[in-house]
C-alpha cells in the first residue's frame, strides 16, 4: 500500500468515526405550520419543501431530526430555534 493510499484510508476512517450530532425538533400545540416552516428555512437552511416535510413529520411523529452536523455548527442554530419559540435539542 502506498503512502498516499494509507493517508486516504486514514482520512476516510477518521471521517466515519467522527460523531455527528443532530438537532431534534419536537411537536407543540403552540406554533403554526407556517411559523415552523419559515423558521426551518431561515435557521436550518432548509428548502421550502424540506421544511414542510419536517413540519409534517414533527406533527405526526412528535419529533424529527432537522439538521445533522458538528456541534459547533448546530449550537447557534438550536439556540435560534428556541428563541423562535420552537422546542428543540441537540442529541
Automatic annotation (TrEMBL):
InterPro entries to which the protein is assigned, alphabetical: ClpS_core (IPR003769), Ribosomal_bL12_C/ClpS-like (IPR014719)
Protein name: ATP-dependent Clp protease adaptor protein ClpS
Pfam family, one: ClpS
GO biological process, one term: protein catabolic process
Gene Ontology molecular functions: peptidase activity
Chain coiled-coil ranges: none
Boundaries of every Adaptor protein ClpS core domain copy: 17-84
Keyword list, A-Z: Hydrolase, Protease
Amino acid at each position: 500500500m502506498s503512502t498516499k493510499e494509507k493517508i486516504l484510508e486514514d482520512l476516510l476512517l477518521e471521517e466515519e468515526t467522527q460523531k455527528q450530532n443532530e438537532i431534534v425538533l419536537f411537536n407543540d400545540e403552540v406554533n403554526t405550520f407556517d411559523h415552523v416552516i419559515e423558521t426551518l428555512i431561515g435557521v436550518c437552511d432548509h428548502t421550502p419543501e424540506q421544511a414542510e416535510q419536517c413540519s409534517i413529520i414533527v406533527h405526526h411523529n412528535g419529533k424529527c431530526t432537522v439538521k445533522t452536523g458538528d456541534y459547533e455548527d448546530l449550537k447557534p442554530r438550536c439556540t435560534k430555534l428556541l428563541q423562535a419559540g420552537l422546542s428543540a435539542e441537540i442529541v
